[in-house]
Amino acid sequence: MNQHPETTAITAGRPKVEPDASLNPPVVLTSTFHAGGAIGYGRYGNQTWSALEDAIGALEGGSTLVFSSGMAAISAVCSILPVGAPIVASNQGYSGVMSLLNSFHESSRLEVRFVDVVDTAAVTAAMKGAALLWLESPTNPCLDVADLETLIATAKQMGIGVAVDNTFATPLVQKPLAMGADIVMHSVTKFLSGHSDVLMGSLSTNDPALLKRLQDSRSFNGSIPGPFECWLALRGLRTFPLRFNKSQENAKQLIARLSAHPKITRVRYPGFGAIISFEVDGTAEQTQKVCESSHLIAHATSLGGVESLWERRRRWPIESPSVPEQLIRLSVGCEHVDDIWNDIEGALASI
Ligand SMILES: *Cc1c(COP(=O)(O)O)cnc(C)c1O
């Protein structure tokens, strides 16, 4: 029987068991290493990174590299594509990725074909001659779900590389490498580390040649994480399944209550996970006021931590105009669900 992810999150990335070996990996704070070994210098490797990479790799089912942020991980994928390479990407997704891809498109670094990922036929048509299919599902912040199995299988038949941003779903919900994807990306900043105290990214793959190219990109662009941050992320990862399951349970309970609230016109939830997007029956200003009127839920961007957070996504000028002005993205934390709900009700009463 395969080990369950709850167990893997706790057991992976530990030092070898021997008398007086530490249970946890040490924080290896060094810029260089004595000559003659496999690492050599602190930009090429570090034992604390490796411990975290082993743990994320065990959860995703592939060899893993950690990066200084999720954006650094995405940038590494883009960096190995030839100049002008056509890539297919969602027309609605994480705003940093949208901005990065738009700037690459404008400068002709890449030819980005933006598509609606829910429209499998449109994505398939756009894939002709492409080098890479970049998928994010569920999408941020509208939580649209792509048919990953079909899209990945089609891309592979066409000989196109596939990378999946698995930040929202996490390996507890979907495992893109097992579906045939070449790369799985995470903003480790979010659910995997889970305490809103570290920024980090990761890439996982089962292709040794691809791993080497991505590793070279990290080494020579210097997009490496700090050893202490890796230690924090691994500490957080130990409870990732516990936290995710609790947040998901809270989210499922909140769906029913939000859907029945007279001041809410639409609730978006893909059926799994801990992110809910809902629309307020009011103006952008009123929606903004709701976000500013919470006491327990932090009014902040980001997601995937133990603490509930929310924000009106359109407060960011870089957010896509296709996202409604009245949309609030709520990252459901691990507090008691009744306390979260009381806070939501109170904030909605402010308008
Ligand atoms: C946050 C996020 C990113 C970017 O990650 P950083 O760690 O902030 O650089 C990419 N994709 C998704 C879906 C995210 O939520």
Write the layout of secondary structure elements.
Elements: H1 5-11, H2 47-60, E1 63-67, H3 70-79, E2 85-90, H4 95-106, E3 110-115, H5 120-126, E4 132-136, H6 148-157, E5 161-165, H7 170-173, E6 183-187, E7 201-205, H8 208-221, H9 227-237, H10 240-259, E8 264-268, E9 275-280, H11 284-292, E10 298-299, E11 309-312, E12 327-331, H12 337-348
Parallel strand pairs: 2-3, 2-4, 4-5, 5-6, 10-11
Antiparallel strand pairs: 1-7, 6-7, 8-9, 9-12, 11-12
Helix pairs in contact: 1-2, 2-9, 3-8
The structure holds pyridoxal-5'-phosphate.
Distance between the termini: 53 Å
- What count of helical segments does DSSP give? 12
* Count of individual beta strands: 12
Radius of gyration: 21 Å
Briefly, what CATH class of the largest domain? Alpha Beta
SSE-based structural type: alpha/beta
Largest sheet: 7 strands, mixed
Write down the secondary-structure element order: HHEHEHEHEHEHEEHHHEEHEEEH
Topology-level CATH name of the largest domain: Aspartate Aminotransferase, domain 2
Quaternary status: single chain
Please give the domain count: 2
Which runs of at least 5 residues are low in confidence (pLDDT < 50)? none
Shape: globular
Task: Spell out which ligands are present.
Answer: pyridoxal-5'-phosphate
Mean pLDDT: 97
Family: Belongs to the trans-sulfuration enzymes family.
Biased composition (Polar residues): 1-10
Keywords: Pyridoxal phosphate
GO molecular function: cystathionine gamma-lyase activity; pyridoxal phosphate binding
